[in-house]
Design a protein that fits this description.
Helix content: 10-25%
Number of strands: 6
Order of helices and strands: EEHEEEE
Shape: globular
CATH class: Alpha Beta
Strand content: 35-45%
Largest sheet: 6 strands, antiparallel
Strand order of the largest sheet: 1-2-4-5-6-3
CATH superfamily: Hotdog Thioesterase
């Protein structure tokens, strides 16, 4: 059965209807698809440090949304992270996604979480599978 990739506005990262979501917006900056996120205290793990799972979620979203805006219905098949340093609470972080390689129904991607001073705090690679969908992807990467 084909997955239903309809956007109902409830995506945790970008959904406008999600009352506890991050409400991120995205734009192109050159060849990168980018969002900015300033973690708040409720996003922390240890004192003053953003939860790594939340950072991973935003990295996944920036890669998945890049495909969505290109009208490529895809889902995350695999993702790997390299956590170079903690992402502090209260600092505006730049998340950027890029396509590395496309072949058939597989798209390899990369993304970074960059601190205001330019330091790359987290690197991600992701493999996305293009899927046949019974609905059009309109907003969320899922």
């Amino acid at each position: 059965m084909a997955p239903n990739l309809t956007d109902d506005g409830m995506c945790f990262c970008c959904g406008i209807n999600n009352p506890i979501g991050l409400h991120l917006s995205f734009q192109w900056e050159g060849e990168e698809y980018v969002t900015y996120f300033t973690p708040r205290p409720e996003h922390q793990s240890y004192a003053g440090i953003t939860h790594g799972g939340l950072v991973a979620t935003v990295l996944d979203e920036v890669m998945g949304r890049l495909l969505m805006v290109r009208d490529v219905p895809a889902v995350t098949a695999r993702m790997e992270l390299r956590l170079r340093q903690a992402v502090p609470i209260g600092e505006k972080v730049r998340f950027a996604g890029r396509i590395e390689k496309e072949r058939g129904k597989v798209v390899d991607m990369s993304a970074t979480a960059q601190l205001p001073d330019g330091t790359v705090a987290v690197e991600a690679t992701g493999r996305f599978m293009i899927v046949e969908s019974n609905d059009t992807v309109k907003g969320g990467a899922g």
